[in-house]
């Protein structure tokens, strides 16, 4: 399965009647998350087992665009507005990523004779 298939998986998750972003937008989220996850896993390409994480995280990232991703907001007397955003949706999958990393790369403990 490739990026196009993951894009389709993301599109299926939208509720009927909900506006679905253009494929190019979804593809960009999928590509960026695939790259970041591959780096965390120290893999040359995205493993099949990681595709569900990318699809879930892409959906969350799409929903968090703009103010939906804001974790706090404040405004000053001068009319300036400050926002804090949730920056990394992959952090929510840290346990799964760690397990997948161990599966792909071993536990890190090696026994020599």
Average pLDDT, rounded to a whole number, is 84
Helix content, binned percent: 40-55%
pLDDT < 50 stretches = 82-86
Determine the structural class based on helices, strands and strand pairing. mainly alpha
Query: How many individual β-strands?
Result: 2
* Major beta sheet summary: 2 strands, antiparallel
Outline type = elongated
Strand order of the largest sheet: 1-2
Radius of gyration: 18 Å
Strand content: 5-15%
Q: N-to-C terminal Cα separation, in Å?
A: 41 Å
SSE order, as H and E?
Answer: HHHEEH
Helical segment count? 4
What does this structure look like?
This protein has about 110 residues and is mostly helical. About 50% of the residues lie in helices and about 10% in strands. The protein contains four helices and two strands. It has helices at about 5-10, 25-40, 50-65, 95-105; strands spanning about 70-75, 80-85. A two-stranded antiparallel ribbon has the order 1-2. A hairpin with a 5-residue loop joins β1 and β2 (about 80-85). α1 packs across α2 (about 25-40), α1 crosses α3 and α2 crosses α3.
List keywords for this structure.
113 residues, mainly alpha, two-stranded antiparallel ribbon
How does the SSE layout of this entry go?
Elements: H1 3-12, H2 23-41, H3 51-63, E1 70-75, E2 81-85, H4 94-105
